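fwd from M.: "can u put these together and see what the complex looks like"

so here's what she sent:
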Amino acid sequence: MNERKDEKWLDEQLQRAINTTRPGFDADAWKQRHPEAYEALISRKQQASGPGTKPSRRVRLMVGALAVAAVIFIGVAIFLMQMPPGEPQGPEVAIAPKAPSAARIVSMMSLRMAYHQGGEEALSQQLDAALKKLGPRPSKLSALQVLSDLEG
Amino acid sequence: MLVERALAGDEEGFTALCRRYYPALVAIAHALLGDRHLAEDAAQQALAQAALKLPRLDKTEQFGSWVAAICRNAARDVGRRQRRFQSHRDIPIEMAESARDNAGPAVRAALEQLEPQAKEVIYLRFYDGLSYERIGAVLGISEQAINGRLRRAKKKLAQHLRRAGFGEVQL
């Protein structure tokens, strides 16, 4: 009791009161006592390296875009390779004969019938009626020109 | 880093992490429970919970203070289960004690009077001489803050010892 009590004395007392053998972690004992925690730990490694690992959404999108681009590129390349050299670059456009309209056909038939039945006068009247339907009649166009056109 | 390795399921990385923090966790649990064997149980339970919850840890650099918080909760659970949490002062404490030194029981009694935070820092510092770095890692505070906390705890201890008739302790 008579000894000098300072911080060093207190530290020694605390060392004696608290100090025990240093606790050591026993991994094997821990695994046996906590198998669920150990399994969870190990499963993360399997998830990280397993074959069923799904790539991220971004990677999947990039792969998809690259696949589409590759298909387009291959298609264009095949198309260009099949074209014979010297031909114009670009597809030929087939020009279909232009069919006359139904109103024009009907008007021409009625004009032919009017000429055969009533002569030039009847033709002129029928022509006026047809042009009212088809559009304005050109002033220079005579009944005879229309008739020759109809006769081919 | 060991935490990243453990997160990736590396068993050796996790074991190394456990070896690093186990003494500090036992010290924390011992400060709460007053029993070495129960403290080791609590520390192992804390590490088991850490293995399960590790993917939820946002800041891996805070692993020490995170697992220490888990350990405090585990120790409280162990204490409740053992019905010793409130009365652990009565149980025999298997601490090394010199037969010729009669200050031991008084020092232990003084330790029991400390606030939990002060008691915890004392246990951490004197549990086989844990380094300030390791203590700082589990408490999440700087070495300066550890020093301040230790000094205040020792002053409290000195007051309790003086009241117990051990005279003045010069700090």
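replying to her w this: Residues 102-134 of chain A form the longest helix (33 residues).
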